[in-house]
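[job 4471] stage=fold_predict status=RUNNING
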Amino acid sequence: MIWVMNAGVCPISKLNTGIHKRESCKKSLTVRGTYHGPSGYDHHVSEFVRELHNQGIKVGLIDIPYWYPVRLGDDKLDPWFYTLDQQVDSSIVLHFCIPPQAKLFYRDN
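[job 4471] inference complete, writing C-alpha cells
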C-alpha cells in the first residue's frame, strides 16, 4: 500500500485547469521505504525511486531498517541508493509501508 502525506499543496493536481503551471511545483520528493532486502517491497521501492530520478525528480530516500530481517549484502545493492540519504527540499513524503509504520515528517524552517 502507498501512503502519501503532504505537508503542503502541490499544484500538479490543478494542471488540467490551467490555473497553475508545471514550473510552480517543486520537483523533489522524499521516499520512505525498504530497499535493502530481497522482498517485493524492496524491489518496488528501488524501481520506483529509479524512475522518479529518471523523470528528473530529486529524491531523498529514507530506509525502514526493521522491515525485513534479511538484508542484501552491499555487493548486491546499487551504491547509488546510498547517495539518496540526504534531506531534500520537499513538502511531500511518499511512504511504502503498512499504515502503522507511516510517520509524519515536519520540515525545520
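[job 4471] summary: The first strand starts at residue 2 and ends at 6.
[job 4471] exit 0
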